[in-house]
From TrEMBL:
<dbReference type="InterPro" id="IPR037171">
    <property type="entry name" value="NagB/RpiA_transferase-like"/>
</dbReference>
<dbReference type="Pfam" id="PF08220">
    <property type="entry name" value="HTH_DeoR"/>
</dbReference>
<dbReference type="GO" id="GO:0003700">
    <property type="term" value="F:DNA-binding transcription factor activity"/>
</dbReference>
<dbReference type="GO" id="GO:0003677">
    <property type="term" value="F:DNA binding"/>
</dbReference>
<dbReference type="Pfam" id="PF00455">
    <property type="entry name" value="DeoRC"/>
</dbReference>
<dbReference type="InterPro" id="IPR036388">
    <property type="entry name" value="WH-like_DNA-bd_sf"/>
</dbReference>
<keyword id="KW-0805">Transcription regulation</keyword>
<dbReference type="InterPro" id="IPR001034">
    <property type="entry name" value="DeoR_HTH"/>
</dbReference>
<protein>
    <submittedName>
        <fullName>HTH-type transcriptional regulator UlaR</fullName>
    </submittedName>
</protein>
<keyword id="KW-0238">DNA-binding</keyword>
<dbReference type="InterPro" id="IPR050313">
    <property type="entry name" value="Carb_Metab_HTH_regulators"/>
</dbReference>
<feature type="domain" description="HTH deoR-type">
    <location>
        <begin position="3"/>
        <end position="58"/>
    </location>
</feature>
<dbReference type="InterPro" id="IPR036390">
    <property type="entry name" value="WH_DNA-bd_sf"/>
</dbReference>
<keyword id="KW-0804">Transcription</keyword>
<dbReference type="InterPro" id="IPR014036">
    <property type="entry name" value="DeoR-like_C"/>
</dbReference>
<dbReference type="InterPro" id="IPR018356">
    <property type="entry name" value="Tscrpt_reg_HTH_DeoR_CS"/>
</dbReference>
């Protein structure tokens, strides 16, 4: 990741919550602690943030605290070819008339383009997914109620009596912060609370995870591996991940990234 991209992520993160630790920035950027400390020092000198012990804070602290994790606008540009190929495979699982849940995320967002030709009932907590499908498809769209988190572009409700409980789906499609032996990982407790409610409304859980997610880690477990029915990933999945999923009896669908790129070019 280039310095400019790291700086963009760091500045976005400090705007998103009052204080961000060096460890959180290491997780967000994949850079070393030493690199992050240098970045913080540089941005402090440029008066773009304030260096504090163990991390950084905004010069103008946010009035509204956001969620942990990388912003949608940053995530959207990472591993984009893999995400498109994975999303294409996810939509191939859908038949007209199906009721599905799509959790907000940059990989699941890529499902909107192939979904344009489908007629499904779609429940989502993603503002961009709902908006795109309303404008560009004949799918029936239901949105969850709650607070819109601008950085992640999702709608979350901490309440039990929201509309989520009234929607039943054959499948739920979701991305992940990380995927390991303990299960599906997420970055924020509020995300976990809302996503666990959604998972409870679907028969099957389909996880869309590019190969980088098998090495990513978070301190919070959303659900164990045995709740996952299918994982769709790209052709760079490490052997250790393939064996982990096989032992957990999870169906694996591998998306051919180069074939998906060829198809997208020929359709374009």
């Amino acid at each position: 990741m280039h310095e400019k991209e790291r700086h963009r992520i760091i500045l976005s993160a400090v705007q998103d919550r009052p204080v961000v630790t060096v460890q959180e920035l290491v997780a967000l950027t994949g850079a070393s602690e030493a690199t992050i400390r240098r970045d913080i020092a540089q941005l402090h000198m440029q008066q773009k943030l304030r260096r504090v012990r163990g991390g950084a804070e905004s010069i103008h602290p946010p009035q509204f605290v956001g969620l942990a994790g990388r912003p949608f606008s940053v995530n959207e540009t990472i591993n984009i070819a893999q995400k498109r190929a994975i999303a294409l495979k996810a939509v191939e699982l859908c038949e007209d008339g199906d009721a599905i849940i799509i959790n907000g995320g940059t990989t699941t967002f890529q499902m909107v383009h192939p979904l344009a030709t489908k007629r499904l009932q779609v429940f989502t907590n993603s503002f961009p997914i709902a908006e795109h499908l309303l404008k560009n498809s004949k799918n029936t769209i239901m949105l969850s109620g709650g607070v819109i988190y601008r950085e992640q572009n999702i709608i979350l409700s901490p309440f039990d009596n929201d509309v989520t409980r009234n929607f039943y789906a054959s499948r739920m499609f979701m991305g992940a912060q990380g995927l390991g032996a303990l299960g599906l990982m997420e970055a924020d407790p509020l995300l976990i609370q809302a996503e666990q409610k959604l998972i409870g409304q679907a028969d099957e859980l389909v996880v869309l995870a590019d190969s980088s997610k098998f090495s990513a880690r978070s301190s919070l477990i959303l659900c164990p591996l045995d709740r996952i029915s299918t994982v769709i990933t790209d052709d760079r999945m490490p052997d250790s991940a393939a064996s982990m999923l096989e032992q957990a009896d999870i169906k694996v669908i591998v998306a051919d990234v180069s074939a998906a790129q060829t198809k997208a070019t020929s359709n374009g």
